[in-house]
Amino acid sequence: MIIVSETVQKFLVDYIKKRNMQPGDKLPSERELVEMLEVGRSSVREALQILTERGIIEKRPGKGAYLKSNFFQCHTNNLQLLIPAMDISTSLDMLEFRKGIETENAFLAAKRRDHESIQTLERSVIDLENCVKKETNHCS
Known about the structure:
Helices cover about 65% and strands about 5% of the residues. It has 7 helices and 2 strands. The two termini are about 30 Å apart.
């Protein structure tokens, strides 16, 4: 199964290639990518982080993400090995498909809600807030 951040990664690599971007060129902002792809900000951040770790882009605090100079010149042929093989139209189709499925799931969950499930959700929100305060993934 392909996760959203992988689709965002593929979109970005395709974006770079189709626009013939050069080292040092600025990529769209997180906000622009969220709006363009209609995905969550966390998926965009995860994709950018992975591309940073792989040496494809560099993030400059307060300035955005830029194509990394030494990577693209030397490894253009290896980009397809770094992320799932999918072209941009397939990536966008996948996002559209997920949006439809997730919308229907949200509708059904709201329709089938009961007092117990609402309490469970409220406890989950409290647990999540505690995790954020403690800056950890392991909260109970």
